[in-house]
Amino acid sequence: MEGIVLASALTILSPNFCLPMSVIDDSLRAQYKEEPQPPIKVDDTMALQFYRGPKSWTLIMIKSDGESCVIAAGEGWELTKS
Fold it and tell me: Is residue 51 included in any domain, yes or no?
């Protein structure tokens, strides 16, 4: 993914940006059909939320103060068992 196109037509050209979690969640669900996976608690100050879609994925960092930042995104997704 070159960037994220939000439902509000705002285009973010870098995967490193912060917005309210509700805006990120709504955009990923609507634009990319990505669904959140169970969050991973890193420590008392941060959790990671992975979104997975049919053609793309996004990794979100959620801080304890509520700030949410996209830290990585990409195209292609294949589940394999090893």
Answer: yes
Please name the amino acid found at residue 49: Q
What is the pTM (predicted TM-score) of this model? 0.73
Number of compact structural domains in the chain? 1
Q: Is the C-alpha dihedral spanning 38, 58, 78, 29 positive or negative?
A: positive
Q: Confirm whether 70 is domain-assigned.
A: yes
pLDDT at 12 over 80: no
Is residue 29 within 8 Å of 15, Cβ to Cβ?
no
* DSSP H or E run through 71: strand 67-75
